[in-house]
Amino acid sequence: MEFHSMEDSLFKQIEKAIEEKEKTGVKLEQEKIDEMVEKMYSPEMINQFSDPLYESLINQAPTMYEEHRLEQQEFEARLQMKWLDAFYGLKSVITISEEIGTGLIDEFLENSKKDDGTSFVPLEYDIAFKLHGKSVVVSKEILTLLQSGYSDAAISRWRTLHEISVILSLITDTLENNTDLAKELAIRFYNRSIVEEFKIEKIDNKRNSDEFISLKAQVEEIKNNYGEKFIYEDYEWARPVLPQIKGRIYFSNLEKKTGNTKLTSYYKMANNQIHSTSFGLYKSFGDMYDSGIGVIFGPSNYGLSIPGQLTIISIIRSTSSLLTVDSTLDKMMIISVLQKFFERYSSVFDDIQTRIEREEEEMKKEE
């Protein structure tokens, strides 16, 4: 795409007009020339000049789409050939986790069925099931990103998966040890969603709507019940299980409480890919040489190992957390099976990445 051709062409036309006038003995004043240049940059003229380019690009849209679709398709086919064994493992774990989740929900509904055929799901269980379902969906999103070669985006989504895993662990651990406390925690967690919805409505300037007025009343009641900190601090809902913390509760406190601190460094690393930090700008998982030179515009078949392994870890933790509630021998056995999947496929991800690095080094030697 050219960025100077139109401007250069118009300046040449102005120069030609000046020369032709001078040939007839007429010398254009500088003020007149400035007017011509100013008119050239006017919004009206720019809009007029842009119309042909716009129409041309609109007509090319189907061609551009098909060309890039085929390029991406060819790239993904090559990527699949390299990473297929690892994708087998990740997809298997996601599918198994989904089947476990639906199976546990069906079992719970069947066991809680009343005489009239209806079932009641307590809020603490509803939240646990929903969190696990969300972890499966996010894992599928990550797999799709990995299959397309977007490792930085994959680890960004893994950050969400890690948060889900930690919160789910907090809920299920509490369910196992103290059902009354779990109920209180679940209510506080749910009430936090009302606060968040209220804040969004407030930003959207819907203050006169019936929904906003209703939410405002609910938030006032929540504030009266839990205090002002509950409204302004994201993790104040977790206070009942973290009574020893006197100040503000952070996500890192939830990680420590649930024994998930080993992934904290990766969580912080993922933050740099989500937010436009200078570190995230110059450090990409898809850059094999970590050079920080140049600009990345597309996917890479390198760098899938860490986000892939992290996804396996977190979806297994989420699923295992759900299985620990009302644990049975069968559930313990399934947790063991999931752990075996991790042990096998974490090394598969590593081996493939190492193989790519070796192939690249060999190619460099041959140059």
List the helices and strands and how they pair.
Elements: H1 5-23, H2 30-40, H3 43-111, H4 123-147, H5 151-177, H6 179-203, H7 210-226, H8 229-232, H9 251-258, H10 264-274, H11 278-282, H12 305-324, H13 329-366
Helix pairs in contact: 1-2, 3-4, 3-12, 3-13, 4-5, 4-12, 5-6, 5-9, 5-10, 5-12, 6-7, 12-13
InterPro entries: DUF5677 (IPR043733)
Pfam families: DUF5677
Features of this protein?
single chain; 367 residues; mainly alpha; 13 helices; 0% strand
The first-to-last residue Cα distance is 32 Å
Gyration radius (Cα, Å) is: 29 Å
Biggest β-sheet, characterized? Answer: none
As a percent range, the share of strand residues is: under 5%
Reading the helices and strands in chain order gives HHHHHHHHHHHHH
Specify the helix fraction band.
Answer: over 70%
Global shape: extended
Instruction: Tally the helices.
Output: 13
> What is the structural class?
mainly alpha
- Please tell me the overall pLDDT: 89
State the low-pLDDT regions, or none.
none
The number of distinct structural domains comes to 1
Count of beta strands:
0
Structure commentary:
By secondary structure, the protein is an all-alpha fold. The protein has one domain (56-366). Helix content is 76%, strand content 0%. The protein has 13 helices and no strands. The protein has helices at 5-23, 30-40, 43-111, 123-147, 151-177, 179-203, 210-226, 229-232, 251-258, 264-274, 278-282, 305-324, 329-366. Helix 5 crosses helix 6. The two termini are 32 Å apart.
